[in-house]
Amino acid sequence: MNAAIALDSGWEIAAGASDALAWAPVREFGTVGASLGVELDTPNGRYDAQDWWYRCRFPASAPNGTDRQRLRFDGLAGIAEVWLNDEPILHARNMFTTEVVDVTGRLRPDNELRLCFRSLDAELAARKPRPRWKTALVDAQNLRWVRTTLLGRIPGWTPPVHPVGVWKPVWLETVSPGGIASIDLQCDAAAGVGRVRLRATLTAGSDVAEARLRVGERTHALALDGDTLSADLTLPGVALWWPHTHGAPALHDCAIELRQGTQWTAIDRGRIGFRQVEVRRDDGLVQFHVNGTPVFCRGACWTTDDFLRLHGDPAQLRRTLTLARDGGLNMLRIGGTMTYESDAFYALCDELGILVWQDFMFANMDYPVADDAFRAGIEREADQQLGRLQAHPCIAAYCGGSEVEQQAAMLGLPAEQWSNDFFGETLPARCASRHAGVPYFRSSPCEGALPFHVGTGISHYYGVGAYRRPISDVKHAGVKFTTECLGFSHVPEPETIELLAGQPTIAPHHPLWKQRQPRDNGAGWDFEDIRDHYLRELTGLDPIALRSTDIARYLALSRAVTGEVLKRVFAEWRAPGSVCGGGLVWFLKDLWPGAGWGLIDSTGRPKAAYWALKRAWAPRSVLITDGGLDGLQLQLHNEGGTAFAGSVEIALYQDGQVRTAGGRLDVMLAANQGIALQADALIGHFADTAYAYRFGPPQHDVAVARLKDAAGDTLAEDFHFPHGLNLPPQRAGTLTAQAQRQSDGSVLVTLEAAALIQSLQVECAGYAVDDLHFHLAPQSRRTLRFRPLEAAPRKFKAHLGALNLRELVTVRAD
Q1: Within a 10 A sphere around the Cβ of 503, how many other Cβ atoms?
Q2: Contact between 759 and 803 (Cβ < 8 Å)
Q3: What is the pTM of this model?
Q4: Same domain, 354 and 414
């Protein structure tokens, strides 16, 4: 059996040539940036420019009998050389592989471990064969030869801090006979029945007499043939794993139990799950089905929970992923510009019911797969990653990488040069062998006449967004499945702006603000320009004039605009009859404070777009779409395993308070059913709900749809503003609020609206609120819960505002 000691203390770091090192204690063992404790905007973050050294001392005792000792390096970012007691033991060039060195007989009672990460700039300066194409994503084309993340090396949207050094733990392991040397454990389901395939090899010298596999409360005998264990099992009646939007993500404890003599030893394999995942292409669709049920996939592209460390600690990961789950997200994509995530990340996605689209770490470049050494390294990388991911039910798709085919095609190369045999043959074969039944895609995007065409296969859709198409573009673009879409500069909350600027507002021309605006390398615009385009479209205001005279209102409207755009797009994609099977927004979380692409800022605080999508992504929801001359359409959704009986209502209001028309209908939705209704059918007479006919002045400025359960309680609402978001302000007293302290320390705030309240905003130091940036219908009531944070003040005070309120409403509680 194996025992491991983490070598995570006593480390020192130094930079430069080996004969002139000035050692200093690391602040936190990890990458150079983490070890030095730098800020993300440090001007000295180009750690690729020189060599970096680590060293530590550690004790060791001699092994017992036939035990072996080894050093395991879970992740070395860069071109690494390692010495043990001045003896060279390792040269590594791939940050995505685990390196293991047998050091039996080479350890002393007191040992020194020394690591050097050689200058990547020096490596990139070496002459290499020319690629077939060049990419503008990175400055150094020779990065294609180095297996490292592109984070920190992409001008325009990542902090300028190079991820170099030790980014995963270092271990001293003792390996005893009778353990598991290698394991292939795959779980899935077919026709509702769980299946397990196990192939394992015992360590040398094992004297195992009997073995069994325990799954939950069930125990199954394993075949033992020499040093090989095997089983092919079916588990009828086992609870299946579902994405959380469609069911419970059931998991089962798993262990391999070995008998040596009369002693049984259990080797924990964590928790496993059983599900069937497939992609169906009926009528050209790209539709994920889980356990035979179609799933509309919605979510975002994962970055990293901590840029300096490249992975968040488990508690921080849980907070971020729980926030994602609670926001209605059911899929995350780990793109090829990022890193493979930690074991804790995938285990949490298993637990929370979040599907994972997993790219291999390739992006945009012409990788030298014909080079024997490079090819051997990436094949080993793929095998290692598949070996650790294969037992996770959250894995829904594997993909060769990000925009490799797109980059070649956009530069005019012929189709036969868009890809290669590694992505087209080797990787899919390895995936099929090590994780059978999981769909594979060569590249994201791919499959069209040109791989970046959005109407075929998987796409990256930025028609609404970077290409400034009208929101109506989504009605006819024919997007089938977009693994990357809707990149917007989302303005964070005032508290996060204050971290950046020292005050809750910042001038948009401020150098620090502009520095952190995401942009494509070489483009003459940034994504704030894109947001401003849609601000003009949705409000009729000139963003330049607005921010010149009223920065606070400009920022408030900017928050509302991107949330409104994303909500409208997903309402179209989720509509019954839509050809779209899913969409993943470009970035769940910002890499650093600012108006980045993330739905969540780098501190973990949701932005307005998060709250808008939480309502658009809810399993039970009502969403309004604009049907033009056919008026407004109401899209009703009931995901999950149970039927729904209730009612839907529509109401039209003029001046934010005068009801001009409305209607109601009882509805029954089966499990996992969506239906579309015409608002005109509920109202029963012509009301020009979409203001498409324009016979005279408009008779309403907001439409409100509600989905109610059988008891009459509102489950979901949606609002439509036919004339834009810039509504005239309401009079004082339109919104009232009362606060009451609860026994658990939280505060309930009850809101009452005499007229429409548009995009409620809250400023409340020391508390987190359970909803934000929602609208309140006229003559409605809503209760919010504020939960205290670690540094919550003794007395509660919140300031409530809205786009159509001139003054803040202040509410207090002792």
Answers
A1: 9
A2: yes
A3: 0.97
A4: yes
